């Protein structure tokens, strides 16, 4: 893992419907981005809770994971500010996402860790799809595309950290109990994730006066057919439910390295 301290789009603005002029595709990515700062803070706290009891090299990996997520949060806060500047009221959505994370922190630490492992699998699946199929970001402005690709590269790099931490923390459970624990949490995390993103999408689409059945049919076609991100991640999602699952059973580091090389990331850009 390499925490890359880079910045994107400072001083830039983008159209209200920045994804190919499509309000539906734009709303989907905006809803994801608006969830990232609160969600990634929750992930970091859930994993760092166990930092002092972890062995090396996992302990150092958690530190790098936390640093990468901190940079992701900072850059999506900047991006979300641009979403607001493009005319969307985002404060309500951001507040709802902070409340979602706060409720999560009231759970037992082991549940928070299992939820983080599950949701990190979500981010890794989406990251792979974004990098493997150029259609997903083809209509984005260049600097926005670079932001999402950089984020995706680092999500792939650290995709095993939360899962490995969960496996270490629950090492005294029987294999069946540990499997049952993580898949039940994944099922709940899946339901919560889509309930919350559907809520946020309603709030965004309503601001464009297009929160209608026709728009949701168009969103379904976008997600399942063309380019079809949810169709692409369906089998990887199901893999999490297998007893022998591990994130690195699907090694996509070559893909991440290829895209990272094309981005020509320059940490000096932050200044």
Features:
10 helices, Ribonucleotide Reductase, subunit A, UCP07580, globular, Metal-dependent hydrolase, 271 residues, mainly alpha
Task: Please explain how this structure is put together.
The chain is 68% helix and 0% strand. The longest helix is centred in the C-terminal third of the chain and has 33 residues. The protein has one domain: Ribonucleotide Reductase, subunit A. With 271 residues, it is mainly α. The model has no long low-confidence stretch (mean pLDDT 94).
List the helices and strands and how they pair.
Blueprint lengths: L22 H26 L9 H28 L5 H15 L3 H24 L9 H16 L3 H9 L5 H33 L5 H12 L4 H11 L13 H11 L8
Helix pairs in contact: 1-2, 1-3, 1-4, 1-7, 2-5, 2-6, 4-5, 4-6, 4-7, 4-9, 5-10
Protein name: Metal-dependent hydrolase
Pfam families: Metal_hydrol (PF10118)
InterPro entries: UCP07580
For this structure, the CATH topology is Ribonucleotide Reductase, subunit A
Q: How would you characterize the largest beta sheet?
A: none
Which outline best applies? globular
Cα separation of the termini: 23 Å
Percent in helix: 55-70%
Number of strands: 0
Mean pLDDT: 94
CATH architecture heading: Orthogonal Bundle
For the record, the count of structural domains works out to 1
CATH top-level class: Mainly Alpha
Secondary-structure class: mainly alpha
User: Would you identify the regions where 5 or more consecutive residues have pLDDT less than 50?
Assistant: none
What value does the Rg take, in angstroms?
Answer: 18 Å
Number of helices: 10
